[in-house]
Every structure is written in structure tokens, then in C-alpha cells.
Amino acid sequence: MKTYEVIHEIFNQCPGNHSRDNFIREVDMESPEVWLEAKFRSEKELRMEKTEKEDGSVVYDVMTADVHQRFTFSEI
User: Fold this and answer.
1) Residues 62, 8: contact at Cβ < 8 Å?
2) Which of 2, 11, 45, 52 has a CA 20 to 30 Å removed from the CA of 61?
3) 45 three-class SS
4) Residues 6 or more apart from 56 whose CB is under 8 A from it?
């Protein structure tokens, strides 16, 4: 099991409001993808896009029923 710093951003979809909620925490997990699949297993609509950054972090953009969320995982 590895420890990751997880930055979770929730994007506001309202027109004219481009702010977002940000949460940062440390999580022990096997892998980010398995953790996200467990977190969103009850969602009927789910789309995930993975981006690997040059600094080693991994970013997942997650869309669920019109809510855009971004998770950035950095191994500690």
C-alpha cells in the first residue's frame, strides 16, 4: 500500500461562476484508479480521463451526471 497526497477539486458548472471547491488530504491506497472506482461505484454515469504529469503526479478528470471533479494524486 502506498500513501498519496490527493487534491480533490469540484468545479462549479453554473454560468458565470468559475470557482471551485478544493480539498487536500493524505490517503493510503493500492492505486488511484482502484480508489476512484470504489468511490464512484454507485454512479450510473461515469467518465474518467487520466493524465500523467512530468512531475510524476497523476490527474483524473471525473465526470458524473454533469459534475466535473478533478483528482490529483502525488505519491508521498
Assistant:
1) no
2) 2
3) coil
4) 74, 75
- d(C-alpha 22, C-alpha 39), whole Å: 17
25-64, pLDDT tens digit by residue? 999 999 999 999 999 999 989 999 999 999 999 999 999 9
Residue with cell 458524473: 64
Q: Cβ neighbours of residue 69 under 8 Å, at least 6 residues apart?
A: 8, 9, 10, 11, 61, 62, 63
What's the farthest any 2 CA atoms get from each other in the chain?
Answer: 42
Residues 58, 73: contact at Cβ < 8 Å?
A: yes
Distance of alpha carbon 18 from the chain centroid? 18
How many C-beta neighbours within 10 Å does residue 62 have?
Answer: 19
Q: Is 63 buried (19+), middle (13-18) or exposed (0-12) by CB count in 10 A?
A: middle
